[in-house]
Amino acid sequence: MAHIFLSLAIVCLLFQLSAATGIRLQLTHVDAKLNLTKTELSRRAVERTRLRVASLSSSLAASTTASTGNVQAPLHWAQVSYQIDIAVGTPSIPLTVIADTGSDLVWMQCAPCQYCFRQPNDIYDPSKSNTFSKLECSSSLCQSLPSGNRNCDGTDCEYFYSYADKSYTTGLLASETFTFGSVLVPGVGFGCGRMNSLSNSDGSAGIVGLARGPLSLVSQLGAGKFSYCLTSFGESSSSPLLIGSLASLSGAAAQSTPLVQNPNPNMKSFYYLSLQGISVGTTLLPIPSSVFALNSDGSGGTIIDSGTTYTGLQHEAYEAVKQEFQSQVDLPVADGSRTGFDLCFSYPSGASGVDPEARLPLRRRGHGVPAA
User: Fold this and answer.
1) Model pLDDT for residues 229-238, shown as the tens digit of each residue
2) Which of 60, 240, 279, 369 is in the most buried spot, having the most CB atoms within 10 Å?
3) Distance (Å, rounded) from C-alpha 319 to C-alpha 231?
4) Would you name the residues annotated as active-site residues?
5) CATH number of 4-246: 3.10.310.10, 2.40.70.10, 3.40.1370.10, 3.30.365.10?
């Protein structure tokens, strides 16, 4: 059973995870400073989404069939969408990293590198920091790594992570002081990568994992909750990422839906939602509930993911949405090859065609999603 990947272009999200000092960071879309046209932005977003969904689908399929024994961790990350600026070490150096709700590990490139990709900032050198410390194999964070992703031949905890797009990082698990905005956080566990490859780093020095596993930043901080508000990927302004006490759900318009836990231990890091169906305009589509169901083996279900710009649907659901849009929009179909979209319409000057809204009702509450 295929998974559904949900991402909202303009949305505020609150993830309730247990309390910590509030941290405020700014999320910046990777395309924000490139001065691209709307068509170019759409095309890049479509391609990024396809690669991301393919990567996650491959990872989830492998995790569903894998045993819980000596296996490599699920492959999470594929493409960059949002970045944050942090500082690392004492004295600290500024770094731009990827913020990713689809992966756990916090890691960055470390000097001296055996192999590193280019980054605009200086590569972090642990020998120049007063607060760097290697983590031993007996540490709880090292033991949190799947056995297939760690090497404990010696005292130090060596890690290896590979990704579905052939990217990888390998090095030592360590701890360091991180600076998030004005907040200094000592003892953050991270991967100090000495051999790294990212297929498309977009100026990033590494990844800050925000998923549900013990290695992620939110889990290490004991934050209990985090929230982020994403502006449209076509806007140049940044948007907030709030961790800990600053993250709150308030206001008369605020709605909530519970996160769902995947029963498969290899897939517990992802944020699952309970999608109840899809409607286009006033029409609730006759899509079987089994299409959206999270199954006992961990297959199926709906994931919300910061790295997926557009919503990805299982084939049966996608075809139903596509056909309903075509039936409701009284406009000629256009060639969308320049944008990467499968279905586009010509909108002649003065036309008054119907522009239906797609809605994806979630458990307890309904959230409207603007039609793409």
Assistant:
1) 777 766 777 8
2) 60
3) 28
4) 100, 305
5) 2.40.70.10
